[in-house]
Write a structure and sequence with these properties.
Keywords: NAD, Oxidoreductase. This protein is α/β, with parallel strands linked by helices. The protein has two domains: 155 residues, Rossmann fold, CATH 3.40.50; 122 residues, N-(1-d-carboxylethyl)-l-norvaline Dehydrogenase, domain 2 (Orthogonal Bundle). It contains 13 helices and nine strands. The protein binds NADPH dihydro-nicotinamide-adenine-dinucleotide phosphate (NDP).
Length: 290
């Protein structure tokens, strides 16, 4: 029976996700490296800002850090509580999930890889998609806690499967973002009104999340709001490329997209949103996508 929950990592996603947990649990611990954020969360949402050692005593522990390396380092510094379920919402590395899942099992606990999609607005509205890998019994036990933050909650396979699905999803988003940026640059070069073009594309077969939301809401209006940092996208596309490599497959579109995202990340200003991939095309073509 799950009675207490904890959330570790109150970043752009975690801060908003953890805000929903007090609706389901009386006791919700929060911890953040910059502890001021944890205190602010407690004041805002009625959670309890506690030391890491106390947070990991909860029955169910969520984490949402930049990388699997960060999660592994944090877990190596704590004592795993027997019977607890760790739900890692980081967009992480499948092999790391397998390793951590074995470690938790040895301690009589469970580790689920549970990355999310839906961006910060989905975190705010508790409408995230969770793609979950790992032990099915732990998944079923943790479901009520996950439901506090998610809309579509899908168990996709054994340990690491959730991270794999997330990496491929973000790679597909990047493919579409690159392709749509190229397509709109070509249309602008031919004097086409891009808003009218997107109206047509979004009612036609070429539409994608890039044409429906990213380009109109972040690029054409020149807002590029920082909600999902470009280095995090580059990390995700890198995980997807590793999956291809490990399976000894050939995936030229994915490989090229990874190079493009890396190039964009290498030239972007610090603290750039992922949508600034479009700016790389603008600098090459001297055409503004607006
Ligand atoms: P942010 O950079 O906004 O937040 C990162 C959080 O991790 C902060 O709380 C930060 O603490 C903490 N942190 C960073 N490094 C460490 C460390 N070494 N040890 C302990 N804590 C650490 O990232 P996001 O919230 O945007 O992303 C988190 C994860 O979610 C990533 O894997 C990302 O790919 C994924 N994701 C992001 C989405 C988005 O739209 N932003 C959407 C879906 C998934 P501090 O405050 O002290 O810096």
């Amino acid at each position: 029976m799950i009675q207490s929950a904890a959330f570790i990592g109150l970043g752009a996603m975690g801060y908003r996700m953890a805000a929903h947990l007090p609706k389901t649990f009386e006791t919700v611990y929060v911890w953040n490296r910059n502890f001021e954020k944890a205190k602010q969360h407690a004041a805002e949402y009625g959670t309890l800002a506690v030391e890491l050692n106390q947070a990991v005593q909860a029955d169910v522990i969520f984490s949402c850090l930049p990388t699997s390396a960060d999660v592994e380092a944090l877990i190596s510094s704590i004592e795993i509580k027997a019977g607890s379920i760790w739900i890692d919402c980081t967009s992480g590395v499948p092999d790391s999930a397998k390793k951590l899942s074995t470690l938790f099992e040895q301690q009589g606990a469970a580790f689920l890889d549970a990355p999310v999609s839906g961006q910060t607005i989905g975190a705010e509205n508790a409408t995230l998609t969770f793609m979950i890998g790992g032990n099915t019994t732990a998944f079923e036990q943790a479901l009520p806690a996950i439901q506090a933050m998610g809309k579509l909650i899908q168990h996709v396979g054994d340990s690491g499967a959730g991270f794999a699905v997330k990496a491929v999803n973000n790679m597909l988003m990047a493919v579409n973002l690159c392709a749509a940026s190229e397509g709109l640059t070509a249309l602008k070069a031919h004097g086409v009104n891009l808003h009218a073009a997107l109206d047509c594309i979004n009612a036609s077969s070429g539409k994608s999340n890039a044409t429906e939301t990213i380009l109109p809401q972040r690029v054409l209006n020149r807002s590029f709001p920082l909600t999902f940092a470009l280095p995090l996208l580059a990390k995700d596309t890198g995980i997807a490329v590793d999956l291809i490599r490990e399976a000894k497959l050939s995936a030229p579109v994915i490989a090229l997209t990874q190079s493009l995202v890396q190039a964009a990340n290498g030239t972007a200003e610090p603290n750039s949103d992922f949508s600034t991939v479009a700016k790389m095309y603008e600098s090459w073509s001297k055409i503004t996508i607006e």
